[in-house]
Amino acid sequence: MSVLYTLSHSPYACDLLSLLRIAWPGDDLLLLSDGVIAGLRGSPAEGALISSPLALHALENDIVARGLTMHFSPNIGIISYNDFVSLTEKQSQQMAW
After folding, report:
1. CA-to-CA distance for 26 and 71, rounded, in angstroms?
2. Domains of the chain as residue ranges with CATH
3. How many CB atoms neighbour CB 77 within 10 A?
4. What is the pLDDT along the chain (97 residues), one digit of tens a residue?
5. How far apart are CA 38 and CA 8, in angstroms?
6. Using an 8 Å Cβ cutoff, are 39 and 46 in contact?
7. Would the keyword Ion transport turn up in this protein's UniProt record (predicted)?
């Protein structure tokens, strides 16, 4: 059974690598709140995320609110709140990180 992980903390304030070690193909990761910092283009966190088996998503409103639009990775899908709801329907198990 696959999982939706939500990362709401900066990758510099949590153990992102632990999350990535437990991820499996078919799992989704949503970056929200300060978690969108992990999606900065060229950052070590972005490199780790791209190398993971996760499908990667980030909330557009949180990217815009932090002024990161021009610096955000093109390898991470930018989604709306409606898309977030769809992810929660797709993945019956969820884990906040």
Report:
1. 27
2. 3-96 (3.40.1260.10)
3. 15
4. 799 999 999 999 999 999 999 999 999 999 999 999 999 999 999 999 999 999 999 999 999 999 999 999 999 999 999 999 999 999 989 999 9
5. 10
6. yes
7. no
